[in-house]
UniProtKB/TrEMBL annotation:
NCBIfam families: PRK02406.1. This is DNA polymerase IV. Residues 17-197 form the UmuC domain. It comes from Bombiscardovia apis. The active site is at residue 116. Its main location: cytoplasm. The lineage of its organism: Bacteria, Bacillati, Actinomycetota, Actinomycetes, Bifidobacteriales. Monomer. It comes from the Bacteria. The gene is dinB. It is found in: Cytoplasm.
């Protein structure tokens, strides 16, 4: 909002929380490695049934934004440049930024996503004196080393810092002094508060709450009636007064790692869906190994032609990080969740048309910290190994070799056939 972008004053006392948000990160990463794309409408996402993952600011002029269907983006901007998502590249750049820049300030960094984090700089002020000095250095380093831009919000809490960085975009800094944070947040529409979505906005407006200013005039009891939730009422009450009780939590452990894809055309072919699950299993396994993690629970997700979806999970007896183990379990979950008969499996025909399929792994733990206790069956198999177990071990070793090849030549250099 133009009204929010003004100078709110220079009092930085108590403003020890920074929110850093990379500007159009995926698109900007592509421009950094392809400078000829600078100042052109760039859209990350391909395929008529895919969604836009990111859009450059030049593309946003045409009304294109994240989560929009690629087909719609092409209609809005036929001259746009459409590139596929390269998550390995974006994550590599992100890791370098976090390691070489953010972690040089403090270890109190809470990474929210590949391109966004909170930072508690209270312990760094002895060296840097003011949070604004830190924000300036971060933006300079990101621009100089990586040819990218980021926006920084400075405030006394996470909520206001995030809202400030949003209003500082692109490539800016916005400081909200502690004494001004209530006034700042009460300028906003309801959707200006992170966490208020379309459904919440509609429900609040049905109670006559049109914006954050009117929200701030409600008591917690009234908000509990409006939302039906004590927790939501408490959070909304605090937010409407510019308050946030959440602390910056560094090194938040990952809860799950997943991969999913939308088919070009809805399919009922078992082979087609299994081929996709194989690719997803390979991606998930590779991510687990790269992050030195093991997973105990595997989940398969299916979305049908009517857009509703189902999931089915299974917790394994032994933790895994190999596609040779993940893929067979994913196929078993697929046939189980669709209640497929032996005859249907033989025919290779699914009972429903599938639009999207994916695999995720959860119950994560660090490899070096995870004790793996072999069962009696495992020990007997080691003495008298079965052919399929030996093959599985060979595949697991092959996957580690593939990791080395991909690290040198890129993620698409080689694929695993199972």
């Amino acid at each position: 909002m133009a009204a929010a972008k003004r100078d709110w004053g220079s009092d930085e006392s108590g403003c020890t929380v920074l929110h850093i948000d990379m500007d159009a990160f995926y698109a900007s990463c592509e421009v950094a490695r392809h400078p000829e794309l600078r100042e052109k409408p760039l859209i990350i996402g391909t395929g008529p049934r895919s969604v836009v993952s990111a859009a450059s600011y030049e593309a946003r002029v045409y009304g294109i934004n994240s989560a929009m269907a690629v087909s719609q983006a092409r209609r809005l901007c036929p001259q746009g440049i459409f590139l596929p998502v390269d998550m390995h590249y974006y994550r590599t750049i992100s890791a370098q930024i976090f390691t070489q820049v953010f972690s040089q300030i403090t270890d109190q960094v809470e990474q929210v996503s590949v391109d966004e984090c909170y930072m508690n700089v209270s312990g760094a002020l002895l060296r840097w004196e003011k949070p604004s000095n830190i924000a300036r250095w971060i933006r300079e380093q990101v621009a100089t080393r990586f040819h990218l831009t980021c926006s920084v919000g400075i405030a006394s809490n996470k909520l206001i810092a995030k809202m400030a960085s949003t209003n500082a975009k692109p490539d800016g800094v916005l400081l909200i002094p502690e004494a001004q944070q209530a006034q700042f947040v009460q300028l906003m529409p309801l959707r200006g508060i992170p966490g208020i979505g379309q459904a919440s906005e509609k429900r609040l407006k049905s109670w006559g709450i049109e914006d954050v200013a009117s929200l701030s005039r409600c008591s917690e009891e009234e908000l509990q009636q409006a939302t039906g939730s004590h927790i939501s009422a408490r959070n909304l009450f605090l937010a409407s007064h510019g308050l946030d009780e959440r602390a910056v939590i560094p090194h938040t452990p990952e809860k799950s790692i997943g991969a999913e894809r939308t088919f070009l055309h809805d399919t009922s072919s078992l082979k087609t869906v299994c081929d996709l699950l194989r690719k997803c299993s390979d991606e998930v396994a590779s991510s687990l190994r790269n992050r030195q993690l093991l997973a105990r629970t595997l989940t398969v997700k299916l979305r049908f032609e009517d857009l509703h979806y189902i999931t089915k999970s299974h917790t394994l007896r032994m933790p895994v990080h190999s596609a040779a183990t993940i893929y067979p379990e994913a196929v078993r979950l697929l046939t189980s969740m669709l209640n497929m008969s032996e005859e249907q499996i033989k025919q290779g025909t699914l009972p429903k048309l599938i639009r999207l399929a994916g695999v995720s792994a959860s119950g994560l733990s660090k490899t070096e910290e995870t004790a793996v206790q072999p069962s009696l069956d495992d020990m007997l198999q080691e003495q008298d190994p079965q052919p399929d177990k030996a093959q599985q071990a060979q595949l697991a070793q092959a996957e580690k070799t593939l990791d080395s090849i991909r690290g040198r030549y890129g993620t698409g250099a080689v694929k695993l056939g199972l």
